[in-house]
Amino acid sequence: MTLFLQLGFQGIALGLVYGLIALGFVIMFKGSHTFNFAHGQFVAIGAYVVLVLLPRMPYVLAFIGAVAITVGLALVVERLLIRGLIGRSVTVVVLATLGISTMLHNAVLMVWGVGSHDSVGPVGAGTTKVGSVVLPNSALATVAVSVVVLAAVAWFFQRTRHGLALRATASSQEAALAQGIDVGRMFALSWALAAFLAVTASIFLASFPRVVSPSIGDLALIAIPAIVIGGMDSLMGAVVGGLVVGLTQVLGSNYLSDIGGGRLHEVLPYVLMLLVLLVRPYGLFGSRSIERV
Amino acid sequence: MSVLTSPPAPRDAATPAPRAQGLLTRGRIGVLLWIAAMVVLPLVLRSELWLGIGILTLIVGVGALGMQVITGLAGQISLGHAFFMGIGAYSSAWLGADKGLPWWLWLPAAGLVAATAGALVAPVAVRIRGLYLAVATLALVFIGLYAWETWTSLSGGVNGRPAAPVLFGDQDLSLGIMAGDQVILDAFQAWWYFALAILLVVMLLTHNLKRSRLGRAFMAVRDKDVAAAVVGVPVTQTKTVAFVISSFFAGISGALLVSYMGYFTPSQWHLMLSVDFIAMIVIGGMGTVSGALLGALFVRAMPEVVNHASGFLPFVRKGTSTDGGITGPLLSGFLYGLVIVLILLFEPNGIRALLLRAWRRLPAPLGSSRERRKTS
Fold first, then answer.
1. CATH number of B53-313+326-362
2. Domains of chain B by residue range
3. A–B: how many Cβ contacts below 8 A?
4. Nearest CA in chain A to B157
5. Are the beta carbons of B87 and B113 closer than 8 angstroms?
6. pLDDT digits (tens, 9 = 90+) for B172-211
7. For residue A246, is it within any domain?
8. Bridge-partner residues for B327, per DSSP?
9. CB within 8 Å: A99 and B340
């Protein structure tokens, strides 16, 4: 039972990180109708920038600097490479973001190489004991910060002018234009918000015992099953999907280690995703209308 | 639909391409000229780099035509091409190398096994479309990678395994074709002609498919599946058939690819391979045979050329490094991604449209431009 609780907590921590990444995907998808396969590379770049800034300044400043740089990059990519593809077919947009992902991935390798670096988590390797359950501090920090950030995002969407404008744009760009909302600016805002979530997720994805390495970009792709499980246009679904994927991976890595070469937990989220697609193609929380024949 | 998401005119695949004007599609004469050129090329081309690129282009051209069927014609975006190619590759290696069957059995068998896998996946895939289909097929790639790496008795694990050789009698194609002591075709030429022959068969199949009842059904489903259903096209069945045909070509292409390389590892059936194939048809030109081939040439040749040329650039490091620095493969990867995005932005209809335009602007033999002659 103790083991189950420990694993469950770590699963929730990892799931919340996936949830943050998945939320970024969904916000970009709803805000600018672009499913950004390059989002994983934003996560990787965020982690690397924190890594570079960390020796030179306090943690909070390094984080803010990384957010500024990654948001800047996301805005440049959106304005220069994505905005021109508005209205093109899904195939074209998917290929474009895959192309951007290739570019960014190779750029990361050019700047920082293929090697692994240190962790960049806000807390180190310590543990905290609650009853008989031993919890790593990094997981505690992950859960605490993720919950705060998710609450802030929810507040932003529900209680602010820009959040309202973003929701209006997502539901109908034409109607939003008619209400005087600058839709182009909303595209940029959704990408900036997603980049901020990517950096937040990156410091926990590269938190002890995980480290900063080029594979972070691929690791972030596991958020895709999370989105599909939750429903591609549901903010709530992204977080729930992330939790499902995180718990599946952590619990699977322990309880299924004897089956299928001990790596079954790596593909389990994808299998789960196919099952969800088979039963509910629009995901658990998605709206029934989208992309359904 | 809204102001910003609806284009002023359907620019992508919806507009029918102008016919009988292409470099490769100028009727039968154009095709015959192209075939003649492809037959002569390996006899005069003496660069092993370019012969290698050419053979790989011919082989992946088969897979690109498969991609063209599912995405270009039937409009179903699939990221699962690498998965089906992997299935073809492993079936061919099992039948050809482990069981010792001849190539004329393992090659079609590789296609059939991949097609069966396509038929098994189709029930899930036909229920969804657009992005959902893209990510569902993405899952296939990752599940496939896991299967190849775990099923070590078949795949040899991360170390890889040898592929099936192509034997004509007792002559191995990878050693060249000999008559007595005399070399008739060296290894490059032999593989070139073998791959060309298979590509020509697949090209003919795709071309005829496009003009058949089934091909028109594909395009009807692509343009608007609801409208297709209204006019009596069985949508689910049509999509399933598209998946099966596409997987069949992918399986053949995968089997040829590993047979040419001789040795292969599970990691090469990664998502990047699928991306290459989408890039081929979108960059080359959606929905056309010549577009798929142009795209295949571009995707195969471009990284090699950059890699080769980067040896002469002063800021490019030689060899690999773990702590960063610009190396040839990284530079070519970066430029590959950049060129994909730039072509999508500035030439929506791909290289084929670019070449067609350049062709029409060429001055015609009698002084008037071809475009003018056409309109008069």
1. 1.10.3470
2. 53-313+326-362
3. 176
4. A261
5. yes
6. 887 877 777 777 788 888 899 999 999 999 999 999 999 9
7. no
8. B317
9. yes
Asked whether residue A195 is assigned to any structural domain, the reply reads: yes
Query: Domain span at residue A130?
Result: 17-214
Q: How far is B4 from chain A (nearest CA, A)?
A: 7
Across the interface, which of A35, A110, A228 has its CB nearest the CB of B324?
Answer: A110
Q: Which of residues 230-259 of A touch B (CB under 8 A)?
A: 232
DSSP chain A: -HHHHHHHHHHHHHHHHHHHHHHHHHHHHHHHS---TTHHHHHHHHHHHHHHHGGGS-HHHHHHHHHHHHHHHHHHHIIIIIGGGTT--HHHHHHHHHHHHHHHHHHHHHHH-SS------SS-S-EEEETTEEEEHHHHHHHHHHHHHHHHHHHHHHHSHHHHHHHHHHH-HHHHHHTT--HHHHHHHHHHHHHHHHHHHHHHHT-TT----TTHHHHGGGHHHHHHHH-TT-HHHHHHHHHHHHHHHHHHHHHTTTSGGGTHHHHHHHHHHHHHHHH-TTTTTS-TTTTB-
Tokens representing A223?
Answer: 């958020």
User: Which residues of A are less than 8 Å from B323 in CB distance?
Assistant: 112-113, 115
Contacts within 8 Å (CB) and 24+ apart, B209-214:
B209/B69, B209/B73, B209/B245, B210/B73, B210/B287, B210/B289, B214/B238, B214/B241
CA B280 to CA B299: how far, in whole Å? 6
Q: How far apart are the first and last CA of chain A?
A: 45
- The pLDDT tens digits of the residues spanning A98-157 come to 999 999 999 999 888 888 888 888 887 788 888 888 888 888 999 999 999 999 999 999
Task: Give the span between the Cα atoms of B203 and B269, in whole angstroms.
Answer: 24
CB contact (8 A) between residue B278 and residue A103? no
Q: Would you state the structure tokens that stand for residue B359, as one six-digit string?
A: 């062709």
- β-partners of residue B373 are none
In a domain, A260, yes or no: no
Give the position of tokens 């005119």. Answer: B9
| B158 vs B148: CA distance, rounded Å | 9
CB A81 to CB B345 under 8 A? Answer: yes
Q: Show residues of chain A in contact with B279, CB under 8 Å.
A: 95, 98-99
A140: in domain: yes
Mean model confidence pLDDT for chain B: 84
Is A277 in contact with B136 (Cβ distance < 8 A)? Answer: yes
With cut-offs at 50, 70 and 90, classify the pLDDT of residue B306. confident
Is residue B370 within 8 A of residue B360, CB to CB? The reply is: yes
In chain A, the number of structural domains is 1
Residue at token pair 């620095």: B325
* Residue of A108, A116, A277 to mutate, interface with B, max B Cβ within 10 Å: A277
Nearest to A277 among B124, B326, B345 (CB): B124
Paired with B363 in beta bridges are B369
CA pair distance B248, B85, nearest whole angstrom: 9
Q: Which residues lie across from A129 on neighbouring strands?
A: A134
As a whole number of angstroms, the longest Cα–Cα distance in chain A is: 59
* Cis before B329? omega within 30: no
ipTM score of the complex?
Answer: 0.88
Short-list A242, A245, A268, CA closest to A16 = A242
| Residues A217-227: tens digit of each pLDDT | 888 888 889 99
